[in-house]
Amino acid sequence: MTALVQAYAYLRPSAVRESAGGRTLALETSGGAGPAAVTAHPRFFEGFLTAPVAAAAAVLTVADVAAARFDRAAGGSADPVVTAGGGLLRLESFSGCCGVYARLDILPAGLDGGDVGCGTTNVDINASLHRALAVLGGLDPLRLTVGPEDLEVQTFDGRFVEKRVPLPGRWLRGFAEAQVLAAGMALRAEVPAAQAGALLRALPRPAGRPGPPTTRWVVPAGAGLRPVSRPAPGAVCLPGAERLLILQPVLRHATAVRLYAPAGAGGEPAPVAWEFLLPGMRLTVMLSRDAYRGLSGEGGVLDDLATASAEEDAADLLPVLPAWGSKVEVAGLSREAGLSPGRVRAALTVLGVSGQVGYDLADGAYFFRQLPWSAGDAEARNPRLRAARALVSAGAVQLDGAQARVGSGDKANLVRADDTGQLSCTCQWWARYRGGRGPCRHVLAVRIFQDLMTEETR
Fold it and tell me: Which of 103, 121, 113, 179 is nearest to 347 (CA)?
């Protein structure tokens, strides 16, 4: 697997600092992108948190996800990303295995006493800050700064804190896949936090040695969630359920919990998203289909990326995207750009691959961001897409009615369409995943070829 090295340079470590005026949660920034230009150490906010203890627990959860691996391998991943704009702050992270995505939205109601800037950057989360957040309590106000308080003074001697972190390609792809998965989810339940807490406390504890992942199912029942031993009508899957234990520190501050899952998931394991409603904040945690499966490998972006017009449509959408922090809605963009909703969604997927949009389940809309590192082009991050385009370029796709032959000689595979137009393949990839991780390269090649033929006949 391709691994990059991401270098962070911070003026000083993030910390909870004591002063005569009270405590300050100072989150230091590194290499941010904003509306005007790239800034070495952007400053996004200076003010107070209206629910400081709850905010500390939520920030700690995002940091815990970034430091964790749930596939039994060692080591975490990169520092969280923060996006500012529209009066709110969004902190995002992935686990090192890319199987868990976390995002904390600090809403305008959660911030007091300062304007919120615009841009995206990494924030330093270190071991000392982690310990300080874990013991933070009391009723005293907590001031928050995102970015240096005094840039000139702190850079006078030229010293800074530097981190060099391996950044796997799957971590980069995770942003795009999480966006596509979230856009396909629907609200399945909203329950009081106490009911969700009872469910989490009943989950099995991780074993001391590697074992099979635990999949649980729950059925919304009244104001609670009823565990069931197997899939049932209306049931929501909790894949790799032990991973939810990371949410316990924030649960006591929540007022309600929402569960989102793909519509029509049936009895198969499926991703799930938990959204915690906190005072002036929302914390969303998404789980992949099982503990050993990263979100980055879901292949949900491939169908859209294979569309002939998607990249051109994405370029057309950029000038009409709403400003930082505003909701990005498909219907509005469709009217503004003169494109069908389907083409707008495909274009948003293209933008998601480069990290420029995410999806907010609570708003049911996309949001704009600009990652502080390069996500690369879509083809470089998706080898199946690259292989499919190579098959088309080599003339290896031959259509014959409702089926196609992809490849040459004994290595050719048959791609067939069913009565609903869904494609399947005779290759080993399809036999193993049955489309559960997106289309294989042969199905993609047929879709690309059909799309090109349609474009030629227009």
Answer: 179
pLDDT at 4: 66
Lowest mean pLDDT among 16-25, 334-343, 360-369: 16-25
Per-residue pLDDT, averaged over 100-105, amounts to 96
Among residues 97, 92, 73, 87, which one has the least CA distance to residue 44?
Answer: 87
How many angstroms separate the CA atoms of 194 and 71, rounded?
A: 29
In this structure, what token pair is assigned to residue 272? 């799930």
pTM of the model: 0.91
The tokens describing 270, both together, are 């499926």
d(CA 215, CA 237): 7
The structure tokens listed for 365 are 């809309």
Distance CA 295, CA 212 (A): 19
Q: Which CATH number fits domain 1-175+185-203+218-294: 3.40.50, 3.30.70, 3.30.1450, 3.70.10?
A: 3.70.10
**Residue 213: its pLDDT value, please?**
61
Supply the pLDDT for residue 152.
42
Instruction: Please say whether the beta carbons of 250 and 81 come within 8 A.
Output: no
β pairing state of 256-262 and 185-192: antiparallel
Residue ranges of domains in the chain = 1-175+185-203+218-294, 383-458
Mean pLDDT of the region 18-43: 84
pLDDT at 428: 93
Per-residue pLDDT tens over the stretch 156-185: 344 568 887 776 567 778 888 999 999 999
